[in-house]
Automatic annotation (TrEMBL), chains A, B:
SUPFAM superfamilies: FMN-dependent nitroreductase-like
Organism: Chelatococcus reniformis
PANTHER family xref list: MALONIC SEMIALDEHYDE REDUCTASE RUTE-RELATED (PTHR43543)
Protein name: Putative NADH dehydrogenase/NAD(P)H nitroreductase GCM10010994_06890
Family that this chain belongs to: Belongs to the nitroreductase family. HadB/RutE subfamily.
Entry keyword annotation includes Oxidoreductase: yes
Keywords per UniProt: Flavoprotein, FMN, NAD, NADP, Oxidoreductase
């Protein structure tokens, strides 16, 4: 497939369709394996997106094996159970509540660790905001490398944290099913707000 | 510019560079106006990204006029002041804490408003998470249409809310300077974590 940009330094229409306009949240999955190399490529793209003070709090568990899926099962809400158990991969999108301990390496030109150390509310807010930004970069990066996604908030975070993050400083944020979507299982697309309902120019 | 995808349904290398790998957080801005049409295009792309129950809490103010920039000025941290006042546009990325009132329209196939009504903690968490996801979609959409960005958390949210959102249900989340970046003002790129520090496969 050859595509053409509409102007230098812009994505072309096919690329915009792939990442934003035609991509859908999938509920059914084709019996087609997800190459490990594509997950790595998507993570290595997503991690380049901006975060506050380069804090980079995103942490991920790719749940792939039947054993790991069974650990996830009891935490899933009823509406998300079947599709998640059937997905080739489910990413637990999490954030590190001790991200600031890495700032001497990630933000070496200032003592950014000191901005956060001892301020639990600022740590939590920064980790949640920037871990969510990075989770969004990941969704779009997965689409960019040719995978389909289905993100979800319907699960018991405390159960997931106990099952996957016990003894660590990571906390779960949301889940993303990953695979090649079965278009026959898509719901009708829900409407979006109009531009003028979202944005004002002053 | 003609680009070529590496496989059907994937972005090509030039597109991945534009959106993820070569894009930078800018601190200086060329004297080149930002077309209103590109801001609209970016919002209309970003709003297609997934949110929980299609909640779509993102709200934006594009601060463009000198008068509006002066309203923003007192809320900016010292390190963000000069570059933000100089940026052609500064987006206030906010979220609507009454987003659930629109769910009968945005998620018509279930009574999703009832999932949130009266649960202030769930409303705040959902608005913050999904408003942040949509803010990330916006950053990548702005890059996709050929603009440069510089996102920031360093500002006084209460001051911004008082100056721009008084009497509304919107709350500020972060800021994004928008324009055509001056590459001579870029800082050296900060390091990212290795794949294995971010992700585990089970």
């Amino acid at each position: 497939m050859t595509t053409q940009t509409s102007a230098p330094g812009q994505l072309d229409e096919a690329a915009l369709d792939l990442v934003f306009r035609n991509a859908r949240t999938h509920n059914g999955w084709l019996d087609k394996p997800v190459p490990e190399a594509l997950l790595r490529q998507a993570v290595d793209l997503a991690k380049m997106g901006p975060t506050s003070a380069n804090a980079s709090p995103l942490r991920l568990v790719f749940v792939r094996s039947p054993e790991a899926k069974e650990r996830l099962r009891p935490a899933l809400s009823a509406g998300n159970l079947e599709k998640t158990m059937a997905a080739p991969v489910t990413a637990i999108v999490a954030y590190d509540t001790q991200f600031h301990e890495l700032l001497p390496r990630l933000f070496p030109h200032a003592d950014a660790r000191a901005w956060f150390a001892g301020n639990a509310a600022l740590i939590e807010e920064t980790a949640f905001r920037n871990g969510s930004l990075q989770g969004a970069y990941l969704i779009l990066a997965l689409r960019a490398v040719g995978l389909d996604t289905g993100a979800m908030s319907g699960f018991d975070k405390a159960q997931v944290d106990a099952a996957f993050f016990a003894g660590t400083s990571a906390k779960s944020n949301f889940l993303v099913n990953i695979g090649y979507g079965d278009e026959s299982k898509l719901f009708a697309r829900s409407p979006r707000l109009d531009y003028d309902e979202i944005a004002t120019t002053l």
